[in-house]
């Protein structure tokens, strides 16, 4: 934790931007630090790119089924054309399947294969430890406290999962 970024100010009056924007910038920087450490490990252990890994993670969170391509693109903030290429790579590796959505000629649903599920079971512990270690190295108590400004108490527990499911 030697070179931790300066903690965001505790009120909007302490700087040019509000506390939430400062916390957002801290979150982006922490995410970047995690991604730098995670990228080579994902490639080595899973044989996929970081972006493809994100697709696998989203699908792994859906044990009962898959996700439509359009929803995956929305959740990842990626153009559909880029996602189509990533899904093709994952399908070629035997990690996902694509199928038409019943009743919708244009809808395509992507689902993890058993091979992908097994691979994630075998590697996710080490990947999670890498994330935990990177975040611990990057964020001290002041930074963690500042992150709390992004999700105020009054939001409630159901808000985050509800937003992700929509």
Automatic annotation (TrEMBL):
Source taxon at top rank: Bacteria
List the InterPro entries hit by this protein, alphabetically. HTH_MarR-typ (IPR000835), MarR/SlyA-like (IPR039422), WH-like_DNA-bd_sf (IPR036388), WH_DNA-bd_sf (IPR036390)
| Residue runs in coiled coils | none
* Naturally occurring in which organism (per UniProt): Streptomyces graminofaciens
The protein, known as: HTH marR-type domain-containing protein
Signal sequence segment: none
Q: For the HTH marR-type domain, which residue ranges apply? A: 20-156
Q: Which PROSITE patterns match?
A: HTH_MARR_2 (PS50995)
């Amino acid at each position: 934790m030697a070179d931790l970024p300066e903690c965001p100010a505790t009120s909007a009056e302490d700087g040019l931007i509000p506390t939430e924007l400062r916390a957002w910038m801290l979150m982006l920087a922490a995410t970047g630090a995690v991604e730098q450490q995670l990228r080579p490990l994902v490639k080595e252990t899973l044989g996929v790119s970081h972006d493809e890994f994100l697709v696998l993670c989203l699908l792994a969170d859906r044990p009962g089924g898959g996700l439509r391509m359009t929803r995956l693109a929305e959740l990842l903030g990626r153009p559909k054309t880029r996602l189509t290429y990533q899904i093709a790579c994952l399908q070629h590796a035997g990690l996902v399947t694509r199928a038409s959505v019943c009743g919708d000629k244009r809808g395509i649903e992507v689902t993890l294969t058993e091979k992908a599920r097994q691979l994630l079971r075998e590697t996710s512990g080490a990947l999670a430890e890498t994330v935990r270690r990177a975040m611990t190295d990057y964020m001290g108590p002041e930074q963690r406290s500042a992150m709390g400004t992004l999700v105020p108490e009054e939001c409630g527990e159901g808000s985050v999962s509800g937003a992700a499911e929509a």
